[in-house]
Amino acid sequence: MALSTGPSQSENQFTELGSDVLLRTPGASSSTSPGNPKHPRLVLIFGWMGAQLPHLHKYSQAYSKLYPDATQVLVRCERSVFSRTEVAKQESMIPVAEVLEDLGYIPSSVRTKPDPATPDVDEAGNRSVLVHAFSNGGGYQLSTLSRVLAKRKIERLSPIANALILDSCPGSGGVSTSVTAFTSHIRNPFIRYPSAILVWLFFSSSHLLAIILRRKPWVDALKETLNKPDLLPWMDKNTPRLYIYSKTDHLIPWKQIEAHAKEGEEKGFDVRSEVFEKSDHVAHARTDPKRYWGAVEDVWNAAVKLGDIYKAQRFLDIFWI
């Protein structure tokens, strides 16, 4: 499906919940109607590192056209994220967790067991969620949310329709790639080159410290987290996972993304890939929007079929009690 990503009012429809988190709720007509049961009710978008809001809003606008009844949570990844303490990183994801609580996707933080009084199906239809992460930065913020929710020790939730999209990630291009990612936006060479040296020193020392402390480098930890079956509380190995990447990506080697997808397949995950030949890093939608958004719709349709199976299983469980 080809979607226009021209100027829109989507930027004005977001409410800022924190320094990194924005919320967009459906319009009045959508919020009072049951909506399309084949559409996700919630879309979580994790932007790439340093992404400007106008660029991220293009994806929000496209999702608004595809799934107008969906609530959207947009998570930014500023370059400063990587220099924050772990406590600060997790605190920045608290607004996302609170939205998930308010919408009934996870139990309230004051209790860790699902409330039996809360039904699996609300008046608007099945709860369902599509997660879309861009580049290592988006994957990093997603992994942080995963750690935040894992600390709550939430019991296994009733399965719902859900899907995961990993766009241009994950991959470990090394320190040189990190330097490029952090400094490519700086046009002034008198600023860019000194900045590159500082970034190189930061990531080199971080990598050395990880070796000394026998910790996994952050990229290795990211890869491991993204290939957990229960990355988020409603996910399992049956969650459809779509990798979108390009063979001409100048930041993330496509072979590394392919290897991560293969590892997931070996774990029994439902993995699919959309491989572009000539698109740049996180630029696949701009290169071929029809193909890109068609792949998004396909993976969500797979999630809907999975949700129907879960719904039938719950019905049978109730019937045979």
From TrEMBL:
Predominant location: nucleus
Family in the record: Belongs to the TMEM53 family.
Top-rank taxon, per record: Eukaryota
UniProt-annotated location(s): Nucleus outer membrane
Keyword annotations from UniProtKB, A to Z: Membrane, Nucleus, Transmembrane, Transmembrane helix
Membrane topology: Single-pass membrane protein
InterPro entries: AB_hydrolase_fold, DUF829_TMEM53
Listed name of the protein: Uncharacterized protein
One GO cellular component, as annotated: nuclear outer membrane
